[in-house]
Design a protein that fits this description.
The structure is a homodimer of 417-residue chains. Chain A has 417 residues and is α/β, with parallel strands linked by helices. Chain A contains 16 helices and ten strands. The longest helix of chain A has 22 residues. At the A-B interface, helix 1, helix 4, helix 11 and helix 12 of A face helix 1, helix 4, helix 11 and helix 12 of B.
């Protein structure tokens, strides 16, 4: 029995009015409405399974991404899922290199976010058909098949397919997945919340006061993280963070433009003697950028975003490069459903690639999970490995209906008031 | 009398079916339909002037950019043009840093192209109100006002406003614009077509054969340029171009991913002893990327694109950085209306910034100019400075109507056939 032919793709503009309560606001994004361009694909297979995927957005602009999803959909409609999976690298290349659409990227911006949403749906469907959670689908794959999902274009000077092969196989010592999981859970259970993030960058005196307060509250044994949300120039970042060094933060996150690799390298070099690392990546738009951040030693903590990179395929290439450059991956999460997705990636990374929990952490925000069919499970401040088949990316139908923009009940209320 | 309040913004999806005749195809873009997201803004001022701007696209995806134009339009509708111009930096920042929309960029992809189209229309309108071609508006500005149009965010480690000020004033020795123009024209008149570009990257033996042929045809005194349209990995680029070095090309254009600054630097370093420079920039998405290309000595020829960078504002910052790093600017042109726009930028660059024609050239493709109200004038293979007020960005109404996608006559014919 085949996997079926993709016969339909539906995309919804789902927005949560989080700006009303100022959830998730920071120096650069004062009023986000956490949103998603939510894709559902269906096949003609008798299994009746649907693949659900999305990309995260902040309200306005979701309709732009949706327009890009429609534009890309010609590459998936009527395709046989078997053909996609058997040449996933080729399909990925087709989607990200459309001769006309790549002009408005390439591999960045709305069109890349749209590719992420579509590919996330494909991965979800594949995992559901296999009856496995996505992380297990990845963990169980033989290295050759795993690598065949990755487009190595433009990164072969940092990582070749042959090298990547050695990384995936040398990690096999970690052995049987369930055993590793137990270890993962044991370590997790010992762990209460121990990391605290302070947003900085608006006012130095204010930052000093708040950092002092937090450090006193959490004591010297817990971890303090700083996040500037791209607020500074390069020199400004160095000066500002130097003033905060006495509070011993582990990292400064997003000190400047997400495009400024050399700027981050300068900052990282200046802050290293103070014991402060640089974390970035949530707005790093593709593997070529991550490659350079790693080559230039511009980051100490790599924060992939499951919905900005083009799905599992591109995330895999970044996890493997991080392994080579010995940089811990600490995914960006929060938003809408990012926690649901990244948990699969970090579990895979731990079991099959890095084999280490040292300096690794994954953001968690207790928000909007109720709209997902299989929400994350957190126990003692740790993600519990999901057991349900798929990528945990499926939203509840009622939620999609209610929050659909602008027709949904929630938004109709706003327009009437 | 004020400049008026922006009371309307219209955006059209204008596509030319160039893929039918394979115009403009290359290794990565096999079937482009040269297109534009074309913006017209109107004010309530009695002058009745319209500002016209656009960004260039390749067909599919134009609708995505248009969706982004609509999303951004809230920042310009009902704004007073005087307020925009008197704080152009602030307006630029507002447009490129919308708290929700920046997530799908930031400053890249569809949303940045949309910002370019809108800002191009603002510049066109401003120049028309002043009764000057855009290049003259720029040339006549005092340096302080000129710099007040530029957002220096994220580039101050390479170029501060103070430094930029010295560049714009120290060039005043070039003196009276008309005088310079005469010189420009005199030099231009002596100049027949002397530069020949060969597209490479598909097949090495084929490239060797064609380069040999072209070099024999043009003789040793003319210039041979190579363009790989992002075809290669880093090492591949070095090896391939080394094989073509005997034909003495001046540059290799776009050897690899437009995002790969460090890769370009490696290529540039390897090819320098062969006397071959690296040219890139047509898909370089913002000033932060150009800054790093310059800092890393990753390019020898800087090819700005008037419609990918966010209009004159961002192009100015790049021209000034190029001046500091002593890199000649050779704009990308062709497409739809890119020649019409960039001519203003290179004339300004020559008169007020670089003061040099050495190693400078600007692409020209004789294509689609007939759809513009003030098409470029080429004499003896050189651009003639435009005399009409504005940014030469206005399309003929009939052309917009006829090529409107998908309703226009031209596209209706395709859908019927």
């Amino acid at each position: 029995m085949g996997r079926g032919r993709i016969r339909g793709l539906a995309v919804s503009d789902v927005r949560f009015p989080t700006s009303v309560a100022q959830h998730g606001s920071d120096a650069m994004h004062p009023d986000p409405d956490y949103s998603a361009a939510y894709v559902v694909i269906e096949t003609d297979a008798p299994d009746g399974l649907k693949g659900c995927g999305f990309t995260f957005t902040l309200g306005k602009g979701t309709e732009v991404v949706i327009s890009a999803v429609h534009a890309l959909s010609i590459h998936i409609i009527n395709k046989d899922l078997d053909d996609i999976i058997s040449d996933f690298r080729g399909f990925y290349r087709q989607l990200t290199s459309d001769g006309q659409l790549r002009w408005i990227g390439p591999e960045k911006g709305a069109v890349h976010l749209a590719a992420a949403a579509i590919l996330n749906a494909v991965w979800d469907l594949w995992a559901k058909q296999e009856g496995k959670p996505l992380w297990k689908l990845l963990v169980d794959m033989d290295p050759k098949q795993l690598l065949s999902c990755i487009d190595f274009r433009y990164i072969t000077d940092a990582l070749t397919e042959e090298e990547a092969f050695s990384y995936t196989t040398s990690c096999a010592w970690l052995g049987y997945p369930d055993h590793c999981l137990k270890q993962l859970c044991t370590e997790a259970l010992k762990d209460g919340w121990t990391r605290f993030k302070v947003k900085v960058g608006n006012d130095l005196q204010d930052d000093i006061r708040r950092c002092k307060l937090v450090r006193e509250m959490i004591g010297p044994e817990n971890i303090l993280l700083l996040d500037a949300n791209q607020r500074w120039e390069v020199k400004e970042a160095i000066d500002w963070v130097t003033e905060l060094a006495e509070f011993k933060p582990l990292w400064i996150e997003e000190p400047t433009s997400p495009d400024d690799i050399l700027g981050h390298a300068t900052i990282a070099k200046a802050l290293a003697p103070l014991g402060i690392g640089v974390a970035t990546g949530e707005q790093c738009h593709n593997r070529v950028m991550f490659k350079q951040f790693l080559q230039a030693q511009a980051l100490s903590y790599l924060q992939v975003d499951s919905c900005r990179l083009a799905s599992v395929n591109e995330n895999l290439s970044v996890l493997l490069m991080a392994k080579k450059f010995q940089i811990p991956v600490c995914p960006h999460a929060g938003g809408v459903g990012l926690c649901e997705l990244v948990q699969h990636l970090i579990i895979f990374d731990y079991i099959s690639v890095s084999g280490s929990l040292e300096n690794r952490m994954c953001e968690y925000v207790d928000h909007l999970h109720e709209h997902f069919k299989y929400p994350v499970v957190i126990m003692n401040a740790s993600y519990m490995p999901p057991q349900e088949a798929g990528y945990s990316s499926e939203m509840k139908e009622d939620s999609v209906k209610e929050y659909l923009f602008p027709q949904g009940e929630v938004w109709q209320k706003f327009s009437c008031s």
